[in-house]
Design goal:
The chain has about 475 residues and is an alpha/beta fold. It has helices at about 70-75, 100-115, 140-155, 185-195, 210-215, 235, 260-265, 295-300, 315-325, 325-330; strands spanning about 10, 15-25, 35-40, 50-60, 80-90, 120-125, 160-165, 205, 240, 275, 305-310, 335-345, 355-360, 375-380, 385-390, 405-410, 420-425, 450, 455-460. Strands 4-5-6-7-8-9-10-11 form an eight-stranded parallel β-barrel. A six-stranded antiparallel β-sheet has the order 1-2-3-12-13-16, with no helix packed on it.
């Protein structure tokens, strides 16, 4: 960063540097100077909610346990906050899910809430595709009954569920090898039951774009628009997971043609996209090996990928480490919001208006995809919250490789004095975890994050 001799450090803990002053364009009778502040970005890899690499966990038996604290700690130390919880229901393919297994599901969810993590959720019946692994799935009627049984748990704990993979159908719940779901009618019935069981604030992912097209009659011409996005409609609530990512010319049958690729590339700007690789091929180099193949970094950006498996395929992950792009992928999966600049009323007065202008750049491959609050928080000289103000800016539209400008004029509380701190808070809107800093978004800047509150420091000033 270019050194400027006139830099003024506002406070020891303050991460921002005063660069210049300008004038606002408000009421001419009350024109005030605005202090322009810059923020230093960081390359640090740290956990943030609802994005990144996940740690997979397969649960086939009732164990009466939540996710171990050691697993939680290890995930966070690796800069991760996601788990894939894959519940295997083979023991219940012809009957109701046993109560002790349902209790195990509940304990896993509760441990996520207690530990500050979220999950990608999948239910399936088979862990293979050979004849010995049959049955690959349950009947439609039995699967619907199982959805009915897990529905109360999903609704109670949806706060810690980032997304639900459609599952249930076929080996590994990936909708290919199947005993009972050979037609679109049965698959649509199952999906509609899932859409009913999962709260409207959450999306459901299908294994290929063709499934969404076939089940709901959409085409490349019908991809989600901004106006249609993040609405409680079937169209807006269905995303995708590619579990043979970068593994062949068509990702082992994930795509039928180029239109399928275009469909997911467009939809994934507004729906969650994730998955895993399944084979080391020429398609998973960091950079493009030829003009006809995307490199991993380019493809991750095109498909707005939010999450990937931390353990599979190991050869692909190893290639990314060897070729030097792994750390960039770890930083950029999903969103990565960076403060670029702030402008603030230069001479604040208690009880008077105070102008805030923020510039935020998204270095990630995608925006945050689930509902997310955004608010300014003012703390007084004692550190107590004096007032909060919601922002009219939705983080789900802070788009990748774009800068978002947020403007807000607030009125400072009467009677405040001393050193005042202004923060940006991006908490989870669910009441159960709203005040837990582990579920708040950390900005990728030096010195702004307060891990005790989950607030990001914007500006310190004195009155």
């Amino acid at each position: 960063m270019k050194r400027i001799s006139s830099i003024i450090i506002l406070a020891v803990m303050l991460p921002v540097l005063v660069l210049s002053c300008g004038k606002n364009s408000g009421d001419a009778s009350q024109v005030s100077s605005l202090k322009v502040v810059s923020y230093n970005p960081t390359d640090e890899i740290f956990p943030n909610p609802e994005r990144g690499f996940y740690l997979a966990s397969e649960i086939s038996k009732a164990d009466g346990k939540g996710i171990a604290d050691a697993s939680m700690r290890a995930n966070k130390l690796q800069g991760r906050s996601l788990f894939l919880l894959e519940f295997h229901l083979k023991d219940y393919v012809n009957c109701d899910i046993a109560q002790d297994y349902l209790e195990t599901i509940r304990l896993k969810f509760q441990s996520l809430r207690d530990g500050g993590a979220k999950c990608i959720l999948r239910f399936c019946y088979s862990n293979g595709f050979s004849q010995a692994d049959k049955p690959w799935d349950a009947t439609l009627e039995q699967a619907l009954r199982h959805i009915e049984q897990v529905k109360p748990l999903i609704q109670e704990y949806y706060d810690v569920i980032m997304v639900v993979q459609a599952g249930f159908v076929g080996s590994w719940g990936e909708w290919y090898y199947t005993d009972h779901f050979g037609d679109n009618a049965s698959r649509r019935t199952l999906m509609n039951a899932l859409l009913d069981a999962v709260p409207q604030q959450r999306q459901i992912e299908l294994r290929t774009p063709a499934y969404k097209m076939a089940l709901y009659g959409v085409t490349l011409a019908d991809t989600i628009t901004r106006a249609e996005s993040h609405q409680p409609t079937v169209k807006a609530r269905i995303g995708g997971h590619n579990d043979c990512y970068l593994s062949s010319a068509n990702d082992v049958g994930t795509y039928r043609n180029s239109k399928d690729r275009e469909f997911w590339a467009a939809e994934s700007l507004y729906t969650i996209m994730g998955g895993e690789s399944c084979e080391l091929t020429n398609y998973c180099h960091c950079e493009a090996p030829s003009s006809k193949i995307h490199g991993a970094l380019e493809d991750l950006a095109i498909n707005h990928v939010t999450y990937l498996n931390n353990g599979y395929h190991p050869s692909v992950l190893g290639r990314w480490k060897d070729e030097g792009c792994m750390d960039e992928i770890r930083r950029r999966l999903g969103y990565r919001y960076v403060l670029k600049e702030g402008k603030f009323t230069e001479n604040p007065v208690a009880g008077k208006s105070f102008e805030v202008q923020l510039s935020i750049f998204n270095e990630g491959f995608a925006p945050v995809q689930n509902p997310r609050d955004a608010e300014l928080v003012l703390c007084d000289a004692s550190g107590k919250v004096a007032k909060t103000w919601p922002l009219d800016s939705d983080p789900r539209y802070w788009m990748p490789e774009q800068e978002t400008v947020i403007e807000k004029t607030i009125t400072l509380p009467e009677g405040i004095s001393g050193k005042i701190n202004l923060y940006l808070n991006l908490p989870d809107p669910c009441e159960t975890i709203h005040n837990n800093p582990l579920f708040s978004i950390r900005l990728a800047n030096e010195g702004v994050w307060d891990e005790n509150t989950g607030y990001n420091l914007l500006y310190s000033f004195s009155i």
